[in-house]
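DOMAIN: structural biology
WANTED: fold as tokens
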Amino acid sequence: MSAPHPKIQVRDLCKAFGREPVLTGVDLEIGAGEAWVLLGASGSGKTVLLKCIIGLVRPDAGSVVIDGDETNSARTRRVANGQLEKIGMLFQRSALFDSLKVWENIAFRLLQTKQVSRQEARDIAIRRLALVHMGADVADLMPAELSGGMQKRVALARAIAGEPEILLLDEPTAGLDPILSNGISDLIAEIVRELNTTVISITNDIDSARVISDHVAMLHDGAICWTGPTGDLTESGDAHVAEYIHGWVEEQARLAAHARPAPEGDGIAESPSPSAGSHGGPTATDT
């Protein structure tokens, strides 16, 4: 009996923008039901890799294979479209449509493809809101009426609206304070268990990575330099991984120091940093 195909295979994937190479030969295999996190410095190609997988960016060379079918070949476009329907994505800045109500945002793909009636789509949206711990009263609000944390939850509800087999998460905790960041991480882990979906997430937050993933891939100079279980991250033996973790630990210490009130009696009233407490870790805009 032959071994099952990996859920996702990325083979020697390359992508450049102009003369600037971003992906220089990425190879990755992800099994069904696994939860992976991509780590890497700003510009290492994490977001571009996700966009190649979902079909938003066409690679220059190499291939993306989902359930045994190549998705970036013109010869297999019809098959590819069917495979890409299996994917849901949470974008870094939530990317909600300002002019649509919350439920319309969540059910956007269902409405566009006319898979269900508007009433059925609204019912599905409300059920997805429940999965992200939000009530039906939120359904008719506009995105501008929501806090940043609530917008993240709505964006996550939209990503899972079609019960995707694959979930791609681009910086799901970016811009959130530590408490909200922890809440979103716990929520993602809960949803992954509930839906038994395959997940690839980008995060710069090591604490979040430990909660939402069981495997890690480290990108450096456009290629993957290390993969392994999340539990082995601090003992990877890879210099790039060690440097990345060291930088993250230093950033957490800096943020904690800025958030700490000045000691009483020192005669100095220190002004808090404008960014103190605004996020749970370093954020990055990827290439």
Remarks:
- The longest strand covers residues 20-30.
- The radius of gyration is 20 Å.
- Residues 97-163 form one domain.
- The longest helix spans residues 239-259.
